[in-house]
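I hope you will forgive my troubling you with a question about protein structure. The matter concerns a single protein, recorded as an amino acid sequence and a row of backbone structure tokens. Please examine both parts with care and let me know of anything in them that strikes you as inconsistent. Thank you for your consideration; the sequence and its tokens are set out here:
***
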Amino acid sequence: MSLKTVLILLGLALATIFALVCVLLTRERSPRTCQHVPPEQEEMEDGQSLVFADLTAEEMFQVVRYLQGHLGVPLVEASRAKPSENCIAWVDVQVPAKAEVLRFLDSGGARPPREALAVLYFGKQPEPNITELVVGPLPRPAYHRDVTVQKYGGKVPYHRRAATGREYVEINALVHRELKKAPRFLTACCESDGTDLVTLTTAPRGFKSGDRVTWFVLFHNVPGTGYYLSPVGLEVLVDHGDLQVSQWQLRKVFYNGRYFASMGDLEQEFVAGALEVVRLKQPQADAVLGSMKPRRPPGPPGPLQFEPQGPRYSIRNNHITFQGWSFAFGMNPNTGPRLFDIRYRGERIVYELSLQEALALYGSNCPGGMSTRYLDGSFGIGRFAYELVRGLDCPYTATYMDRHYLAETDTPKTNQNSLCIFEHDSALPLRRHFSDSQSFYYGGLRRNALVVRTISTLINYDYIWDFLFHANGALEVRVHATGYISSSFLHGRGTDYGNRVGPHTLGTMHIHHIHYKVDLDVDGQLNSLESQDMEYEFVKDPWSAQNTIERPYLRRKRLKREDEAAFPLNVPLPRYLSFVSPNPNKWGHPRSYRIQVISFAGKHLPTNSSMERSVSWGRYQLAVTRRKEEEPTSTSIYNQNDPWTPTVAFADFINNETITNQDLVAWITVGFLHIPHAEDIPNTVTVGNSVGFFLRPYNYFNEDPSVDSPDSVYFSSEQDAGACGDNPLACLSSAATCAPRLPPFRFGGFLNL
């Protein structure tokens, strides 16, 4: 073989080796796709949690079909129904009585029949009313029973019904007809003919039972931006109480601090030169106050949370399990998220945890703002939980779930991807210690939690509802507020009621108060309430009698009656409040769960207010009552439109009954005072606007249960901390060297609007 041939072959070999090295290096730079490893199988229930499950779309359809064929009265679809007609307002699951459910879950009893609750507006009757019917059994209904009198002590008056979409359409048409009576004024004040002005409802609607008279605030509407920040100074009072739409009329007009009998009167004052007009320019989309459009091009992507071996939680139907936790989840179309049968290590801690109401109460020197007390349950906290944006509302790799509802239509609607579940790394130790004395070691555990989240958009505000499940057996409930502030037109002494946030925009002060029901069953149904706090005692030093020492001591107290367990809103709570079991832990203390409230609530409505009883749950930051099947909720969606004669008044629940060794419920109010400021434009941020509460084990266990977590880390000075066998953190460089499987981004949240 010639030297030339040898050199050629050697060159080819070197080229081949170089190419292989390049391929290997390229593959190393392109990490493998993460492989899903199913979570370690926890004991999965055999469909028992379906006793709490929301209705399926098919079940809703069957309920509607049954009602249409068995009531003997004509039913018009609610989206088209006039006030003088009959319609199905909404349908939800009828959760069985607790005793029935527990016999089924715990004692092998029969599965309770599956039923629905249907609410109907009967406008075409001699005495129009709201009727609630239980329909069953599902999925093939064969009976219905009227439960209205049983629940409320009588028929529910028709004027208490929530306003429907059709009602708002008719009101808007009336308002715009009236606006045409003041063309010169509108041109001068707003550079408008009225067609580009939008209305925002207020509530409640009047001053006494039977009223249905509502102030509507008018704003400039610029597509793609929040109109809530562009009031024009014009507000109108509409009487829409008559069953005949043709009889509705505009009762009063307000503009820039003055009241008028009609738009015609306003126009006359303007033409006569007797009206002071603030001349507003038509807002432009690229410069309008409150635009959320990005002002800079996108930068590099931020940190991304992902699961190298897939989710460590399991979801089956409406049931979730995660590292000792298990629970059923659902969504009420009115009051929003609800959880049932929450267990840790197989033991039930909470039977029901549900949102009850969200109150937003405003101040202003304009009639719309000063009269606003929104009870958001009547608008639909669950119904208006729309699709979540992957990667922003929740982590990109979270699990997203659809929710179905039936409200103001005969056809079920789906809010797809409107609830998310994910494991959250808080980047904080749950517990840790570095030992630098006697022996040298490090031990700790990351503070990871499972999060269940949904977000409701209620006109201008967005509420982020979170439920977090921690490794130490603690449950956290949290709500963040964001979205747009509501505003009034700035005039006179407007800044007595908020801050100026735009040329003519007053950010009006308001409170957000949120109410929850927590039916705790701590080591069984029979619990008591115990408070613990500290005091100081002055004692002589045992070793030095001429000196004294201030010694803190523990003051324990069993609260025996409901009146003792009703804690006013702005009075400090005992620092420790616990639901206690009759049974002790290993160390002789009652097995307990502590309630820890985190809240910055504003002041409650004065009790001499004519509408205070409708929100009397807000008197208390915490109230503990005997659980009763006839007291399932702290309020009613009917309270919004008749707060003067509330359908449900929470204050009546507290009647000084004994609460020792009883089935008890904790009713918790959290909230904050919001005085809008410049930084609330364009949106209120979630930072600092979060409140909630914890349910924490307190002597429930014999030690912190998180010691059994497989995520625990421990290594000593005598071990190689970089060895995977000694330290699981050292395994991450290989176990997590993979690229997450990111589904393509899709969004269909505008489909149901």
Notes: Residues 21-29 have pLDDT under 50 and may be disordered. The domain at 48-158 is CATH 3.10.450.40 (Nuclear Transport Factor 2; Chain: A,). The two ends are 82 Å apart (CA to CA).
